Amino acid sequence: MRLTSDTLRGIWAGVTLPWNEDYSLDEQSLRENLRRLVDARVHGIYTTGSTGEFYALDMSEFRQVVDIVTQVVCPTGTPVQIGCCSDDTRDILRQMEYAVSKGVDGLQFALPYWMELTDREVLHFFEDVSTAFPDTPLTHYNIPRAKRFLTGEMYSIILELVPNLIGVKFTFAGSHFGDLQSSIHKTPQLAYFVSENLLVTGMQLGARGSCSSIVCMNPGFMLNMFSLAEQKEWQKALEMQERVVSFTNDLAPLMEQFGLGGIDPVVDKGLAVASGFLVGHQRTRAPYIGWSDEGVQAVRTWLQEEYPDLTS
């Protein structure tokens, strides 16, 4: 499917990477998880973002992940975006070149993140990417960890140089809500994606979907919430969004009680395993520490008792 700012919509699943005991990629579990997401009819699949532990992969492992994702998903017609993130332009372009060679539907990328870029450097980076891949749909992974958080004013300038930019993953939209509203207003031609706990509110402003981790717990829940919002059944959709907000708020003290880590891949992988939807182990690559087996079991029990609608 040709991705455009109009067709880039819905609930996209951020795929976690399961590791064997020796921390090599558990290919069998990854393939099974991809098949489960395709069968659930998510609107798209993306990988090698924060949840996909992009920072922990060397180039050969990046290729390995891209090969598996494209082999399993692309023949089904479910669109695929590959995350291409590094701390320099050269390596990002190398990742993009490989992903494009495998026939992916789009690329998602963050700014090089080690040292803060100036406005001139931001524009030069975007232009370098677009010049190298002018026919490939691009989505910007807009995240404060990259030290520059972009808003509509900058995107309006970027679009003059990068006509194949079709979307923005607008992270931490809750703490940048005014910026989200302004950005959608200034650049309505971009497909803005927000997190699950702001999906419905964001769609009321014009956001198009969510790059979701909760979809890897219970795809039906997230797909239904999006469908209700798309049909403008706001009250029902907002009730589901409030359920997600309550879930994230209630999860925090449980994680603290059991000493469970809170960064993206640790939480997303732990929840996906605890819910019963994804297979494989919840371990993450060092220096980050995945949830313990006891912690996963505690969360599983809690989910079954308090949030059965978010489990599979």
Structure description:
With 312 residues, the chain is of the alpha/beta class. The protein has one domain (10-231): Aldolase class I (TIM Barrel, Alpha-Beta Barrel). It is 46% helix and 12% strand. It contains eleven helices and eight strands. It has helices at residues 27-39, 59-73, 89-101, 119-132, 152-161, 177-186, 199-205, 219-230, 234-257, 264-275, 293-306; strands spanning 10-14, 44-47, 80-84, 106-109, 138-142, 165-170, 191-193, 209-212. It has an eight-stranded parallel beta sheet with strand order 7-6-5-4-3-2-1-8. The relative contact order is 0.13.
Could you provide a short overview of the structure?
The protein has 312 residues and is of the alpha/beta class. It has a single domain (10-231), classed as Alpha-Beta Barrel (TIM Barrel). 46% of the residues lie in helices and 12% in strands.
